[in-house]
Structures are given as structure tokens and as C-alpha cells.
Structure of FAD synthase:
Amino acid sequence: EVGGPTLREVCAHLHEKINTFLTTSPRNEKLSCVQQQTRISLSVVHEALSRYSFDELALSFNGGKDCLVLLILFLSALHTHPHPPPAHAKIQSVYVQSSSPFPEVDSFVSTCVSTYQLSLHRYALGMKSAFEQYLRENPAVKAIFVGTRRTDPHGEFLTHFDMTDHGWPNFMRIQPVIDWHYREVWLFLRELNIPYCCLYDMGYTSLGGTTDTLPNPVLLVPGSKDQFYPAYDERVDDAQERLGRHR
């Protein structure tokens, strides 16, 4: 079909992938944990879909690994939703660009727009200003899925559903992957064979902008100055995830 698959076709394909993953006996305890995290997150997405209509929901998407997991789960859940989106609908999404974005990140985000049928609004603004402008331009949106995890800055006390803080534009933040661990994110993406941004294969473990992000020093290949193991290498866990970030 010209223009790639429809949103419904994308959702059906990902639902089949996730269903296969969840119904396959796990090879080890780590995959068993990822299956459980997946079930919990899917239940949060289904809860969101019962609270809000499709038109009231948007996704914060910056091409990073956490919001990529979230996007896949959201699309999978949409397949079994009793009120599926219209045949040629797209996922409302907002991309808050870094002030100095990596070309590789921008390129990956653009790929995702066509692969996953996103209606993406890009803003080169601060987070708060970007969401203010997005909600001004999309007044029907009441809730936004975000890929925040517990170990992120300001993630410690969040739950699955949190209204924005005082002084922020008013919307419900939905955080289905809040309790996923770093290694679980990578096990999920690799087990389901989900394409991800190429910077992760170069040793970057947390993506900001070009001025504040380097490959993670924990992943430097011994005896090398510029060769790094990939982000999914077992040397990195939650505590070391942001060691390549400089603010």
C-alpha cells in the first residue's frame, strides 16, 4: 500500500509480536521479569484507554529507548481496544528537541513517524514551553504518555497516572514504564527485534543533545580510546545509565 501500512495494520502486527512474547515460556528469569513488566505496562495503557478517548491521548516521543518501548506497548494495546481508532488515524505525538539535537536522533524519529504512523509535532523549546504550545495547538488532548522511569531525574515519586505539577500546563502524565529497569528495556527491544536509534550501538546509553551527551565510559572497550560496547551490554545498569550525560 502506498504510504506504508495503516495504523490498524501496525497495531495488529505489534500486538501479534507482543502476544507471542508473552505466551512463550521464558528462557530465563530475566525474560520472565520483562514479561511481567510488559503485562503491568499494558494494563496501565488499557486503563488510560478506558479513561480517555483516542483523541484525548498523545505521546511524548524523542526517539529514546524508553519512549520507544512505550510506543510499542501503546500500539499493541490499541489493537484490542473496543473502540479502535479510525482506519487512517495517526498517533498524536510531541517531540521536544534538544537545543543541539543529534542528526541520528532526528533521523530515527523521522523513521518512526512513517513506521508507526505518528502525527508528530516538533518543538525546539524547553519542555514546559513545548507542552504549553502543543496543548494550545491541540486543545482536545487531556493526557500524554511519557517514557519516564523511576531512575530518571524527578522520577522517584511518580506513579502510573500523575497530573502535572503546579506552574506546568495542565494535563495527566501517564507513565506505563515507570518501574522498568535499564536492562529490561533492552531485553524487550532486542527480544522483539524492534529497531532503535543507531547511537545506542556506539556506546551511548542516555540520549540528550550533542553538547551534553557522550558514550558511556563504562562501555569503553579496554585498551581502546574510542571503541565502545553497545548500550545493551551487561556492564551497564540503572545506576550507570546516565554516566555519559553532563547535566
